[in-house]
Every structure is written in C-alpha cells, then in structure tokens.
Amino acid sequence: MSQEQRQHARYPVELAGEVQIGAETLPASTQNLSGGGVAVLIDREVAGGAKLRVTLFLTQDGIEDPDVEPFEVVGAVRWVAEREDGLFAVGLQFAELEPAQARLLGHFLSVLDG
C-alpha cells in the first residue's frame, strides 16, 4: 500500500513492548507506528487476522516517563513477514481506540512530528 493510500502517517520509531498471544506474553519491539497501527518484531509467526493485545512503552529518547501509562490496545494481524534474523515482522491494525487511548497515542505521535 502506498503512502498516498494510507490514512495515517507512519513514524519509524523503535519502542519496547509486549504482545500477548493466548496466555503467553512475548517481548516485542516496534519498527514503525501510526495512528492506525504498528509493525512489531516478535520471535514467532502468527496467523493473519488474529487479534493480539499489544502493550507499548512510549518513550522519548529512550527514556520512559513514569507518569505515562503504557499504551495498550488490541490489534488485528494484517501481514506477517519472516526476516533473515529469524524474527517475524507483524503488521497490526488497531481496533477502535477508546478516547483516552487515542489521546495518548496522538500526543506521542505529535511529539515525534516535533
């Protein structure tokens, strides 16, 4: 999908996070983030269409603000790509964001626009 077809600008940002698959919580990191979704790196393949709970630790310059709650959301798997390093890049589209989630994410992305 080209940038012209996207509803949300993507930001190449690496954040620490977690992805919950069933009862298991896996460490994850982001490749990019937008108002509509995220690309995460995890150590296993997941099925397209699966719904995953994602927690992202929104940091600035690698420093986590203790006063800011982690960003937690459910995302649907839209694509999966195996990388040469054995990790899987997983594109997730966010489910409908609650107003508080949308504000938190919007504020974080506005800082990246800086």
3D architecture notes:
- 13% of the residues lie in helices and 45% in strands.
- With 114 residues, the chain is mainly beta.
- The chain has a single domain (3-113), classed as predicted glycosyltransferase like domains (Thrombin, subunit H, Beta Barrel), CATH 2.40.10.220.
- A six-stranded antiparallel beta barrel has the order 1-2-3-8-7-4. The protein has a two-stranded antiparallel sheet with strand order 5-6.
- A hairpin with a 5-residue loop joins β7 and β8 (88-94).
- The chain is globular, with a radius of gyration of 13 Å.
Summarize this structure briefly.
The chain is mainly beta and 114 residues long. It has one helix and eight strands.
Features:
Thrombin, subunit H; mainly beta; 8 strands; two-stranded antiparallel sheet; 114 residues; 6-stranded antiparallel β-barrel; single chain
Uncertain spans: none
Order of helices and strands: EEEEEEEEH
Could you say what the CATH topology is called?
A: Thrombin, subunit H
Helix content: 10-25%
Number of helical elements: 1
Average pLDDT, rounded to a whole number, is: 89
